[in-house]
Amino acid sequence: MEQLSVDHLLGIKYLSEADIQLIFNTADHFKEVINRPIKKVPSLRDITIANLFFENSTRTKLSFELAEKRLSADVINFSASQSSVKKGETLIDTVNNILAMKVDVVVMRHPNPGAALFLSKNVDACIINAGDGTHEHPSQALLDAYSIKEKLGELKGKKIAIVGDILHSRVALSNIYALKMLGAQVQLCGPKSLIPKHIEALGVGVSTDLIQTLKWCDAVNMLRVQNERMDLNYFPSTREYAQLYGLNAKKLGSIKKEIVLLHPGPINRGVELTSDVADSKNAIILDQVENGVAIRMAIIYLLVAKLNIPST
To answer: What's the burial of 254, exposed, middle or buried (CB within 10 Å: 0-12/13-18/19+)?
Structure first.
């Protein structure tokens, strides 16, 4: 069996193109599984997985949990907001206490960039990064790239735009790494205040003009405005942001071509997308949700295959 080149999923930048293709091929198989009447496989029957979420999450947490259960793993859910972390316990102590319960895999979301990498060097378990601050969100980028590939047939040579709050987005950075590795061209679009300085060094184009960007691209990923991460006012008002960078039917109609629409969710309807656009045939937002379970099943399955755990 082919194997991943990594022992953890910490970020897209640690993967090779062959790793991504292996994850996609494995996800194809699991997508068939989750569309059967019986949606479970016994692949990870003796494996225990802990989901550690030090930040609120609904979709990512549910998606990982469903992926784990579809693989027949035992699942522990740990929410830091109700935990000893509030009492001052360190990250390593928290995780080591959980590992003492004989956990094999830790899926972690944490507000600090680099938390997953730090953990992988200090505890004896396979670590999957479910988002570390504004740094990376690798499983989201993989399901986004997989969903675009499914719709467009391939990514090589395709033009993909990422629009909105690039500065606070871990999705954007992981998407840039994944799409570039798979041969796509990437252009970022948003107000200057929400585009990180020197981001062009990653080999991406930058624009502040949404219509020009839409005319250029084959697919567009509309990012959520992350108000919870903003300690300053990065634009005058939500209304003005929506006028300049929100996508509505009129703007879509003006570009005279079909483009694929993605959104990592949750959508601020009326800000990034109007409802008529979010619910249109161009939008593959619900495909992303379905593909997210298959991609996360593939990631977990392939990483566990490297743990050398004797099966019973």
So the answer is: exposed
Euclidean distance between CA atoms 219 and 212, whole angstroms: 13
Residues of the chain with pLDDT under 50: 228-232, 312
From the candidates 8, 31, 61, 109, which is the catalytic residue?
Answer: 109
- Residue 59 bears catalytic tag: yes
Which of 8, 26, 48, 60 is labelled catalytic? 60
Catalytic member of 137, 149, 168, 224: 137
Element (H, E) at 228: none
State the catalytic residue, choosing from 36, 86, 87, 256. Answer: 87
* HEC letters along 98-144: HHCCCCCEEEEEECCCCHHHHHHHHCCCEEEEEEECCCECHHHHHHH
Q: Does residue 239 have an active-site annotation?
A: no
Domains of the chain: 12-137+290-304 (3.40.50.1370), 138-289 (3.40.50.1370)
87 classed as catalytic = yes
* 45 given a catalytic annotation: no
Annotation says 137 is catalytic: yes
* Cβ atoms of residues 245 and 214 within 8 Å: no
Q: What is the pTM of this model?
A: 0.93
